[in-house]
Design goal:
A: 4-stranded antiparallel β-sheet; B: 7-stranded mixed β-sheet; 4-stranded antiparallel β-sheet
Chain lengths: 106, 119
């Protein structure tokens, strides 16, 4: 199976600052990558698919990039509601797998 | 936008079985597959498997293969997941989620079902 590795595990930022989250696949997955946001006690929310396409209703401050094995989620000018855990997930082939998550905290 | 409504929390003893349901509404049920994802307390997300609502085909993660069965009932737009031979490390919140395209990303999720395995 494809192993997804996220870094860093925790990212401390201040409101208004930007954040860059990384995700690496153990083999090439093309652009078959999604990003999710999860807040405590809630199910994940769909943010980005095909590595760089924002899901419906997702603000433009969220952007994704990358292809092959290395991917990035960038959040420009963090808002208070953006402090959460972010997961990447590949869907290149079965089984689908998630990264371990990056917690973005104040 | 559609909705996935899951069944309520469960408490089971080790060795027992549990079935969690996921009822879809607001979209054409048999046009999309459904994945199941679980999250142990304080841990990350683990994909468990997928069921094609249009023909019942399934794909399972190797870790749960043989202990999990996912089925679909098109007459009620409901997907079921049965987990057998429960262990304490099966304690988790179980989510169903719609695959945006076949085998694709998960574009919306159910509210989650807490399954607690304890003697």
């Amino acid at each position: 199976e494809i192993v997804m590795a996220q870094s860093p595990a925790t990212l401390s930022v201040s409101p208004g600052e930007g954040a860059t989250l990384s995700c690496r696949a153990s083999q090439s997955i093309g652009s078959n990558l999604a990003w999710y946001q999860q807040k405590p006690g809630q199910p994940p929310t769909f943010l980005i698919y095909d590595a760089s396409t924002r899901a419906t209703g997702i603000p433009a401050r969220f952007s994704g990039s990358g292809s092959g094995t290395d991917f990035t989620l960038t959040i420009s000018s963090l808002q208070s509601e953006d402090f959460a855990v972010y997961y990447c997930q590949h869907y290149n082939k079965w089984p689908l797998t998630f990264g371990g998550g990056t917690k973005v905290e104040i | 936008q559609g909705q996935l409504m899951q069944s309520g929390p469960e408490v089971k003893k080790p060795g027992a079985s549990v079935t969690v349901s996921c009822k879809a509404s607001g979209y054409t049920f048999n046009s999309y597959g459904i994945s199941w994802v679980r999250q142990a307390p304080g841990q990350g997300l683990e994909w468990m498997g997928w069921v094609a609502t249009y023909n019942g085909d399934t794909k399972y993660a190797q870790k749960v293969q043989g202990r999990v069965t996912m089925t679909t009932d098109t007459s009620t737009s409901t997907v079921y997941m049965e987990v057998r031979s429960l262990r304490s490390d099966d304690t988790a919140v179980y989510y169903c989620a719609r695959n945006r395209v076949h085998g694709g990303p998960l574009d919306f999720w159910g509210q989650g079902t807490l399954v607690t395995v304890s003697s």
